[in-house]
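Whiteboard transcription, Tuesday session. T.W. wrote the structure tokens on the left side:
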């Protein structure tokens, strides 16, 4: 699973509309649709029910959405941590443990 595809997936979840999500992401709607299809194929389950131009998350989509929220929260934590480290250069750095189980 590529982080870029997960980002695209999250955008569709939040907009529940491919064209709006594509516009928000700054990509074309066909590109977005193709990337979601690749992700669905990779996972072996549909993530959305297509309802005309609108979409609804499937149960698998809902689970992936929750997991993506956690993944991106962890990424933001790590980015914030390293930003803090850079701002404290030359001072004693905070000793946080960044192992997967302690974030």
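and on the right, the sequence the group agreed on:
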């Amino acid at each position: 699973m590529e982080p870029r595809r997960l980002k695209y997936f999250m955008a569709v979840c939040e907009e529940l509309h491919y064209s709006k999500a594509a516009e928000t992401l700054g990509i074309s709607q066909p590109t977005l649709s193709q990337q979601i299809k690749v992700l669905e194929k990779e996972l072996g389950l549909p993530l959305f029910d297509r309802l005309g131009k609108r979409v609804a998350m499937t149960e698998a989509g809902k689970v992936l959405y929750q997991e993506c929220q956690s993944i991106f929260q962890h990424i933001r934590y790590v980015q914030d941590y390293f930003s803090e480290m850079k701002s404290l250069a030359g001072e004693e750095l905070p000793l946080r443990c960044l192992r997967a189980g302690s974030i």
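Someone added at the bottom: The chain has a mean pLDDT of 88.
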